[in-house]
Each structure stands twice: as C-alpha cells, then as structure tokens.
Specification:
Layout (H helix, E strand, L loop, with lengths): L1 H16 L5 H20 L4 H52 L7 H4 L16 H6 L10 E3 L2 E3 L10 E2 L4 E4 L8 E3 L10 E8 L3 H12 L11 E6 L2 E11 L2
Antiparallel strand pairs: 1-2, 3-6, 4-5, 4-6, 6-8, 7-8
C-alpha cells in the first residue's frame, strides 16, 4: 500500500516535469485556473465607480480654478512693478558703468555707439562706448515710425514702454512738464529720469500705483508713478525712476 502511494507521488511529480499531468497534478492545475479567473473577474472599475470619480474631479476643478485665476489676477500688479524695478536697476547700472544716462531704453538692451546720444543730446564718446557692459535689461524693442515699443510687462497688463526716456520734475502736476531725453538741456538737477508707459487702463494704473506708491490714487499726481487722465483712461503713465544728477 505504501509502495503504491509512493508510486503515485513520483508519477505526479514526473508528470508535471514532462508535461503529462497525472490525476494529482490535474487537480492543482484546475485550482490555479479557477484562481486566475477569479482575479480577472475582480479587476477594473465599475461604471458607478467611474462616474463617482469624475464627479469628484469636477467638483475639485469648480472649487480650485476660480481661486487660482483670482490669485493670478492679484499677482499682475506685483509682476508689473517688478518689470519697472528691473528697468530702474538697469538705468542705475548703466549710469555707474558709462557715467551718463542713456536717452532711450534701447541703449540698455543693445551696445551703444558713438552715434547714440546721452540724456542731454550729446553723442557718446569712445570711452563711454568701451564702458558699456550690458545688456542691462532683457527686452527686445521693435521700432515703428521712429518710436520703439515692446511687450513691456511679463503679465496680463496691456501697457507698453515707450523707447524714449524723459526727464520730469517731481513737483510737476501737468503732462506738459516733461522733456524727452536726447534734446539739449532736457534734464536738470532736481528732475527724474522717467520711463514712459502707454496703454494701461485706469484699473491697471490704480492697481499698479497701489503697489508702487502704497495708494490707489486715481489722479496719480504724487509718488513715483504718475498718470494723466485722457477721458476714462490714463493717456501716459510716468515712472519717476532715478533722480538726475
């Protein structure tokens, strides 16, 4: 009896080794097949589970997206102020290197030549050209009808820098009180080298003024950021960047 059982055990093992299942091995194979079928039947999601998941995702999107858009819009004035600060830093560094102020923003982006003019209309000398160590701003300006404008702000604001810089007195309250740089005697002591901006809406100006000067002054008659209203929107915005000296 023991020999017969031993014989069955060996034949079962040999059958598995050589691909001929015996009675004992058939039972084990069937169990494996049944087990794999059970697993395959349980895999995947039901339609109800998929619909519930989609519903949860849509609810999250509805809650998060409006807040994200609001945060982006609130950050626009800050990023615009950073753009102005970058131009201010560029002007300061240019003045330190070249010892003179440029007459336009293009001189901050591209190397100056002896044909370019400084703030008060005198052309740069060779010694000034050799001192240029820019670029001082990372902007590309395209010239249209003698004026260069570019996508001034890396934001959703519509404002654009004018290529030409100006000099403006801090005590002035009218739009006629500035002179474009490059003209003889354009700048005097007590005035500011000023960046001119066009295209800002009144709301954009108010928001930017709030960041720059700490107040949403719609008139823009004080502080470093000035505006002169033409109808319902600022005609020109003045950023008094650096005192001229």
């Amino acid at each position: 009896m023991m020999q017969r059982n031993a014989h069955r055990g060996w034949t079962g093992r040999l059958g598995l080794l050589f691909g001929r299942p015996t009675n004992g091995s058939r039972t084990e194979v069937r169990r494996g097949v049944m087990h794999s079928r059970t697993k395959s039947q349980r895999s995947g999601f039901t339609l109800v589970e998929v619909l519930v998941t989609l519903l949860l995702i849509s609810l999250l999107i509805a809650a998060v997206v409006p807040q994200l858009v609001q945060q982006i819009e609130q950050g626009e004035p800050v990023r615009a102020a950073q753009d102005l600060a970058a131009v201010k830093t560029g002007l300061e560094t240019f003045k330190i290197n070249v010892r003179l102020f440029p007459s336009d923003l293009e001189d901050l982006a591209n190397p100056i030549t002896t044909a370019d003019e400084e703030a008060n209309g005198t052309t740069f000398l060779s010694k000034h050209v050799s001192r240029w160590l820019g670029p001082y701003i990372d902007k590309v300006f395209t010239v249209t009808a003698g004026h260069a404008t570019g996508d001034a702000f890396e934001t959703g604001f519509n404002g654009q820098f004018l290529k030409q810089l100006a000099c403006y007195h801090a005590d002035s309250t009218t739009i006629t009180a500035f002179e474009e740089l490059g003209a003889t005697g354009a700048c005097d002591t007590g005035e500011f080298v000023t960046v001119l901006i066009t295209g800002l809406s009144s709301t954009e100006f108010d928001d930017l003024n709030d960041v720059m000067d700490g107040t949403a002054d719609a008139g823009g008659a004080a502080g470093r950021l000035r505006s002169f209203i033409n109808g319902t929107a600022p005609d020109t915005t003045f950023f008094l960047a650096i005192p001229f000296n």
